[in-house]
Amino acid sequence: MRRITALLAFASVALLAGCANDNQGAPDSPAAAASAASAPATASPASAAVVQADTSARAHAVLASASGSDVAGTLSFASTEQGVHITGRITGLKPDSTHGFHFHEHGDCSTPDASSAGGHFNPTQQPHGHPGEGQRHAGDLPNQTANADGVATVDVLTHDVELGTGSSTDILGGAVIVHAQPDDYSSQPSGNAGARIACGVISRD
Ligand code: CU
Ligand code: ZN
């Protein structure tokens, strides 16, 4: 009888000790597991967000008339994985007219003829050419055509420039120009596109 009581007493102590160990271990290990799991979990969305910010730079340009035109407009620029996407509207053009459209080197539209914007954006020292084909300025973009109401809807994707990266091909802070005539994509140095009828500085949103 004494022996059984002793065994029961030992068993109780062992149980208590076991419980104590469990209670000590239980809160610790899930907590440790949780913090170990949460550290990388919070770190990877954070670094993904940094990468996302680089590829999602956005900018705009408000087109102001130049050379006495009635042209106006607003353009948006978005950095995408496929290149810089330019969208927007150009108004006040002649009905069904076609116009040279370029990035120019200086973000300065201050002179009446917009000559202050300088030449075509050309960080790679190439001749003027066809957008997306052969030798060309990074600033060479497709001609824009107005509808019967004199409105051109812009939707251009260019691989030749970057937006907000600080690289030599970064167009942020440069200018976008609309010309009076179509760009022939070959005449030097600027496609014989005539007067500059609108100019806007590419500014971060
Ligand atoms: Cu131009
Ligand atoms: Zn050019």
What topology emerges from the helices and strands here?
Layout: H1 2-55, E1 58-65, E2 72-80, E3 83-91, E4 98-104, E5 140-145, E6 152-158, E7 175-179, E8 196-201, E9 203-204
Antiparallel strand pairs: 1-2, 1-8, 1-9, 2-3, 3-6, 4-5, 4-7, 7-8
This protein binds copper (II) ion and zinc ion.
In short:
With 205 residues, this protein is α+β, with helices and mostly antiparallel strands.
Overview of the molecule:
With 205 residues, this protein is an alpha+beta fold. The chain folds into 2 domains: 27 residues; 147 residues, Superoxide dismutase, copper/zinc binding domain (Immunoglobulin-like). 26% of the residues lie in helices and 29% in strands. The protein has 1 helix and 9 strands. Strands 1, 2, 3, 4, 5, 6, 7, 8 and 9 form a 9-stranded antiparallel beta sheet that branches. A hairpin with a 2-residue loop joins strand 2 and strand 3. It is globular and about 35 Å long. It binds copper (II) ion and zinc ion.
Q: How does the helix and strand content classify structurally? A: alpha+beta
CATH architecture of the largest domain: Sandwich
Number of domains: 2
Ions, cofactors and other bound molecules: copper (II) ion, zinc ion
Question: What is the 3D shape?
Answer: globular
- CATH first level of the largest domain: which class? Mainly Beta
Q: Within the CATH hierarchy, at the fold level, what is the topology of the largest domain?
A: Immunoglobulin-like
Superfamily at the CATH H level of the largest domain?
A: Superoxide dismutase, copper/zinc binding domain
What is the residue-averaged pLDDT? 82
Distance between the termini: 88 Å
Count every beta strand, where a strand is a DSSP E run of 2 or more residues.
9
**% residues in beta strands:** 25-35%
Low-confidence stretches are: 1-53
Name the helicity range.
25-40%
Treating each run of at least 4 consecutive H or I residues as one helix, how many helices?
Answer: 1
> Strand-and-helix sequence, N→C?
HEEEEEEEEE
For the sheet with most strands, the description reads:
9 strands, antiparallel
Q: What Rg is obtained from the alpha carbons, in whole angstroms?
A: 32 Å
